[in-house]
Every structure is written in structure tokens, then in C-alpha cells.
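The pair is listed for reference:
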Amino acid sequence: MSSTIRKTEWSGIYYDGVSAVPHRVTVQIQPSGIQIIAQSGSQLSWRYRDIRQTQGKYSGEEVRFERGSGICEILTVSDIAILQSLHALAPDLVTHFHNPARRQHRLLLTILAGLVSLPLLWVAFTWGIPWLSGPITTLIPMAWEQELGQFMATELAPPEKRCADPQVVQALDTMVNTLRRHVEATPYTFHVHVVHSAAINALAAPGGQILVFRGLLERTETEEELAGVLAHEMQHIVQRHSMRLLVQQASMGVVIGALSGDVSGIMTFGLQAAHILQTLSYNRDVEEQADEEGVLLLLRAGIDPQGMLNFFRTINEKLGEKGKTPQHITQYLRTHPSTNERIQRLQKLIPPTFNPTNPLLPKTHWAQIRELCGSTQN
């Protein structure tokens, strides 16, 4: 048995489910459960049967464990090797945890099958087998994803179509940097661009690129509403939702050409991906994950998450108006479904005693900032 498998102690971050303050802890794995030891010396014992794993299935992701319901306790460990140790120490009690050894085995089989039977793989991918997108995405280098995202952002929003007002740029940079400080162990640097368009929409491109359309910016009442939209889109990027769905829907030949370093392949895939991104629709599970992780990110950052819910309510109010749903609202709903059920579910995640501690833009007037990019009437 290797030294990695025998390791029983790890460093982690613990959230108690009451406050948004992260606590650095030592994590010890034992035959019956996990022991969490705070720097003060206090300890918690988690039984394996009470723990669920919500993150750590994909390469580069931190391992995340949760206990309880609602605003639950959270334990994150950056080293995915803890899962190997758990399966070696208590194999019968952690069958509900992801096993990296099985993932490596599946990846090996996938690569081998692709080399032996590339035509069959081509047909399978063309028909859109969803489960292929996850393993393929794990093989995509981060630098390549970032290059793709920059290409797509330039294609969808060239410089002449972006709002370059310095006050708007500074305000959005402040927001996204505040949020990023509370995203655990992410390799991404986020860039937000305001696109001159009356559409009420926001898009998360791979590699950290976020496009906010002017129509959405102008319809936010407070900076917290826009921060809620940004937190949601950032989670799509961190969880690699956009990358996985783009790989799933693009053609296999283009992906292989791009990954092999073919410049024309990268450009062709980027053009195809940019077109797909504009009409990309996430499934319910992906949207719920981005919603919930976005709310938790706002809580950790000390930002009022009611802003996110207020923006959703604004969309729902437009839907409730008599007559045909406005085209701009339809564009947002195509990629970001908004329902009363969604709002109620997120409301349950917010502690009743939560008090915002981080004023986003204390020295600015949001009503002025949101209008600086020009009117949607033009």
C-alpha cells in the first residue's frame, strides 16, 4: 500500500453552518468517521453515514463534504487523495463517496477505446452521449480553456461593442474581486465585460470570462442584485459547467483538432462554441448547483444574498404582466430559468440571523453607475 493511501491526516476548511467564517482545521480519517480538530483544540466527530460528498468528482476540484440540511456544515479538503485514503481505510462505510481509482480506470478505458475505435467514438459523440463530456473535460488543460474563453469573449463582444466607461469597469472589477477572494482554491481569474445590447442576459464563458449585457445591468436596482448574477455565473465557470456542455454539444473532430494544438481547430471550436453559448441551456441540476453555490459564495463574502432573489423576483414580475412575455425577458429565461419555486428554495439557504458585513460600493451611487453605458432606447 502506498504512502498516500496510508495517510490519515489532512488540512481543511470548515464552515459551521451558522456563520460564513471559514475555520482552518486538521482532518483525521478513522475507521468509523472523520475527526475535525480546530486550531483551538476543540473537536467534532462526523460519522460516515451522516456525510454526503457534493464535490470532488472531477480533476482539479477540491473535495467537499456536507452534514445536515438547509444551511449545513461544510468541510473542504483541497487534496483529492483523501478519497483514496477513505476507500482504503473504511471501504464498506464510504461506498457513497467518489472513488478516484475507478475514475482513473474509466478514463483509461475511454482513451483506449478512442484509440482502438475512433470512428465509433466519433459517432457516439456526434449523437451527444452526455457522459462523455465529463471525462473529456478533465483532459482539457486549464491554459487551453482560458485561451478558448478569451477567443469566445472577443467573438461575442469585440472591444467596440463593450462598455469601456472607467467607473463601470472599476465597479464590476471590485465586485468580482470581492467574490473571488471567497472562492476556495480556484485557478481562474475572472473578467467581466459589459456588452452594448438591450438583452437582459449574462453568459459564463470558459476560463473565467463573464459577459453582462447592458439590458441586465440597467435593470438591477442595487449593486447586490448584480453581485448575485455574477456569483451565479462564476459558479458555472468554477464547476466547469460551460466547458462540459460545450464539449458535449460541439463536434468531436473539432475538439480533437483543437486539443492537438491545431490553431485552425481552436478557432473553429471557438467559433462553434461562441454560437452554442448564446443559446446554451443548463439542466435543472446544474442550475440548482450554480444557484446554491452562488448564494453560499455571497454569504461567505458577507454580501446580502437577497439581491440575487430580488432580481429573480423582478424577472417573475415581468412574466406576470399581462400580454406577451417581452423578448428581452425571454432571452434571459432561455438560459436562466426563473421560477417562484427557485426563489423559495434559495430563501431557505439564507440564515434568518444573517447580517451583511460587506458594503460592495460604499462610495458610489448605483443608480448612476448602471446608466453610464448608455440607454437601451438608443
About this structure: Strands lie at 9-15, 23-29, 33-38, 43-47, 52-55, 63-67, 73-77, 191-195, 202-205, 209-213. The domain at 3-101 is CATH 2.30.29.30 (PH-domain like). The two ends are 68 Å apart (CA to CA).
